[in-house]
Amino acid sequence: MKLLKSKTDQELIRAYIEGDEMGLKLLIDRYKTKIYTSIFVRVKDEFLAEDIFQETFIKVINTIKAGRYNEEGKFLPWVIRIAHNMVIDHFRKEKRGPSVVNGDGYDIFEVLNFADDNAESKLVRNQVDVDLKKLIQLLPDDQKEVLIMRHFCDMSFKDIAEITEVSINTALGRMRYALSNLRKMIEDHNMTFQFN
């Protein structure tokens, strides 16, 4: 198991193809937060996101088992593209667009794993998360989406542009506007946050 954990995505896929189920489990564990978050950002519903997440991995498994996986070294963007297409398919079937979640909606921060801190740091971090979440919810959807994908899913602007079907410059622009709007809201509310 320890030996498998240090393997690359390609090596884990190869292990899975050769019959080692742990290869796929490790890949899912490695990326589940990023993939789930990319789905949730679009559907804004915890249970629907979970269903689409599972459907995505069924498709991933079927594609790998059929020998049709050929995204050399690009496993995460490939799976996120599949997830994105599953979301589009869902809304086509529903014949409606995703709804906007208000401040009382599902907490995106619950799916993120933060490093363990002492009790005081955790309390401060929780309050910062709550305050920041409220402000992020006030951003326009396109800015909110890019900000979450970049900062909480650690995705590249190239991947964000691919998934959201816009140019890299548009994705960069949305991020710039999101950060600018957040800074203004923070100043308006006399809050202190550190942006990198």
TrEMBL record:
The keyword ATP-binding does not apply. SUPFAM superfamilies: Sigma2 domain of RNA polymerase sigma factors, Sigma3 and sigma4 domains of RNA polymerase sigma factors. Pfam families: Sigma70_r2, Sigma70_r4_2. CDD domains: Sigma70_r4 (cd06171). Gene3D superfamilies: 1.10.1740.10, Winged helix-like DNA-binding domain superfamily/Winged helix DNA-binding domain. Residues 131-171 form the RNA polymerase sigma factor 70 region 4 type domain. Residues 27-96 form the RNA polymerase sigma-70 region domain. It comes from Sphingobacterium faecale. Keywords: DNA-binding, Sigma factor, Transcription, Transcription regulation. This is Sigma-70 family RNA polymerase sigma factor. Belongs to the sigma-70 factor family. ECF subfamily. The keyword Flavoprotein does not apply. Signal peptide: none annotated.
